[in-house]
Amino acid sequence: EVQPVESGGGSVQAGGSLRLSCVLQHTVSCTYALSWYRQFPGKEREFVSGFNSDGTTRYADSVKGRFNMSQGNTKNTVLLQMDSLKAEDTAIYFCKTEVSGMNWYCRGDHWGKGTLVIISS
């Protein structure tokens, strides 16, 4: 019922930019909180960017000042603008959806399949 889909990954030189998009498809009305994670080879998935409870955005220390998350054209879309990219940003980027709401079925976390970002130098 809930499926986030990432897009926008690719290969870019260090110092360049990419914009990732996460579009959430769902069949029921709940509260959906979208966030970004990334995973390096041989490592656990780590937090990149998300929303605080008050609606403000937060970022991992490694991307502060370079990445910016924002709402897309619809409430079911979130963007991740990545500037001043570094080789160490190379990873698979995942969109995560936290589902909540007053209805019993509004619960759980759902992950996209990921989009690959490769930064070359």
The total strand number stands at: 11
- SSE pattern: EEEEEEEEEEE
Helix content: under 10%
- Poorly predicted parts: none
β-sheet strand percentage: over 45%
Mean pLDDT: 95
Which quaternary structure do these chains form?
single chain
By helix and strand content, what is the structural category?
A: mainly beta
**CA-based shape:** elongated
For the termini, the CA-CA separation is 40 Å
Main sheet properties: 7 strands, mixed
Tally of helical runs: 0
Sequence-ordered SSE layout with sheet pairings:
Blueprint: E1 2-7, E2 10-13, E3 18-26, E4 31-39, E5 46-51, E6 57-59, E7 67-71, E8 77-82, E9 91-100, E10 108-111, E11 115-120
Parallel strand pairs: 2-11
Antiparallel strand pairs: 1-3, 3-8, 4-5, 4-9, 5-6, 7-8, 9-10, 9-11
